[in-house]
Amino acid sequence: RTTMKSLRFISAEAFVSNAEFARKSLGAVAHDLFPLLFKASYLQEQGEVIHDLVENWPLFDFNVGKLLGATLDCQEDLSHRTCSVCLESCLTGLRDYVLNHSSPYMKKLKVVDLTGIKDVEVQFCKCKKTMGRWARTQLLSKLCSELLVYLQQAQCNPGTFEISINVLIDLFVTERNYELVVQALLKKCSCPLKICCVAFRSDNLTLQKFFYIIKLTDPSLLRKLEIVHNVHLEIEHLEILFNSIHFPLLMSLTLPARTFNVRRFTATDEQMLTNIGEKMGEMRQLTELSMSFSILTGRIQKLLSPLKTPLKMLDVSNCSLNHADMAYLANSFHANHLEALDLSGHDIPELYPSTFFKLLSHCSSVLRSLTLEDCNIQDTHVNMLILGLSPCQKLQEFKFIGNPLSSQALKHLFTFLCELPMLKNVEFPVPRDCYPIGITYPIDDASLCKFDHQKYERVAEELNLILLQANREDVKASTPLFGSYDAAVQETNNELGAYLIKSFKETLEKFTTSFNKMS
C-alpha cells in the first residue's frame, strides 16, 4: 500500500528514524513541526520519540485523531492504529509533561483529545499489540492517580499545581477497572490531568456501581452512553436514571437487552414508558438510539414520538415489532433522516412487506447502513428486495446473514449490489443449499457450523468473482457466523465469559436450593 507523502514528511521520517539523535535534537525543532514529527514517529512506532514529543508539546492542543488523520503531508490515516507501544508512549509522555522541570509558564497545553482513536479488527502496526478503549481507560486512570500521589509526596514547583489540562476520552468501565476509574474521577479537581468523559460504555457492572460512576463522569458533557452487557437495567431503573440525571448533550444512547418487556407491563410500567419517552424528548441532540433484544410490541410510537430531533440511527433488532410499530416508523419524521437502520430478527416478508418498503423508500436518499439479519428473506423475495434497495445509492454497508437464501439467489443479489456506488461492506449468509435438507430458520447455535464448508468456499469465490468482474474490489464480502466484530467485546471477552459462568453457577445454586426445599 503506497500513500502520497510530501518531501517534508519524508524528511520527518528520516529525522525520527534515529531515535537517539531525534530525542537529543528536539530542543532545536520549530514548534510547528511537532505535529509532523508525531505522525512520522507513530508510523514508525518510535515509542521513545513519541514520549519525548508529547512531554515537550509546545502547542495549545493535542488532538490524536487529527494528528493521525489524513493530512496534506501524509494521506495515510493512522487513527485506526491502536498500537500499544505508541499509545502508551503518548499517555506516559502526557504524565511527564506535567512533571517536566521546564517553567510551568512555558507550558501551553490545555486540551488533549483522545476520542478520535478508532478501534478496528485488523491492525497494521509492527508490534501487533493493540491498546483498546478499555486499556486506554485503565492506563489514563492509573497515570492520573499516580501523578497525584507523586505531586503530593515530591517537592514540586508550586506552579505545577496550576497546570490544568482537559483530557477528552471515551471511557469504558467494567467491574475489573471500576475502582481505578472511580478514584481518578473523584480526584479530578486536584489532578492537573482532568479526565473529561465524552462517551461512556459500561459492561459487567452492578446497577449500584453504574449509578455511582455515571454521576462522577459529569453527565452534562456526555455525548454517547452505552449500557451493554450484564448491566441489569430495566424500565424502572431507566426512569430513575433519566429523572435524576440530565444529559443535555447526549447524541447516542444504547440500552442493554431486556430493558423493556411489554408482555409483563402493568399500568405503572406504561406510565414509566411515557415518562421515559418525554425525558428522551428533552434530549435535543439525541440522534442515535439502540434498543435491541427488548420486547417493544406496539410501543414504538409512545417511545419515539416525543423526540424533537429526527433519529439518524435506529437499532430495534429482535424487538418483536408489530405492524403498528412499522407503520409508525414508515410515516414518522424519523424515516427521512435514517442513515443506519437495524431491523434484524423480524419476519419482514410475512409481517409487513409493504410498510417496510415504504420505510426504505423514505430513508433511501440518506441510508448508509442496513442490517436485516434473521429476517426470513427467501429466494422469492430477492427481486422485491432489489427493487427496494435500488434508490439507496448512498448505502455503504448491507448485512443480511441468517436468511434462508440459496447460492443462486445470492449471485443474483450480488450482481445488483455491484451497482451501488458507495457500497463497501457486505455480510451475507451461508447459502441454504450448503446446509443439510430440512434445516429450519433461524438456525440454532448448535447447527450453525454444520454446513458443507467446501461448497460454501466455492460459492464465496463465485460471489467475489462477481465483484471482481464488476471492478468492485473495494467491496469486502464476508460471513461472520457469530456476528460482526465488536472491539469492546473482543477486548473484554475473558471478563465477560467469567461473568457469564459465575451467573450460571449462581442460578444453578438457587435452583438446587429451591429443589432441595421442595424435596
TrEMBL record:
Matching InterPro entries: LRR_dom_sf, LRRC14/PRAME
Keyword match Ribosomal protein: no
Task: Alphabetically list the UniProt keywords.
Answer: Leucine-rich repeat, Repeat
Q: Is Repeat a UniProt keyword of this protein?
A: yes
Naming one, the record's GO cellular component terms include:
cytoplasm
Q: Which family does it belong to?
A: Belongs to the PRAME family. LRRC14 subfamily.
Protein name listed in UniProt:
Leucine-rich repeat-containing protein 14B
Q: Which organism is it from?
A: Ptilonorhynchus violaceus (Satin bowerbird)
Q: What is the lineage of its organism?
A: Eukaryota, Metazoa, Chordata, Craniata, Vertebrata
From the UniProt record, report the name of the gene that encodes this protein: Lrrc14b
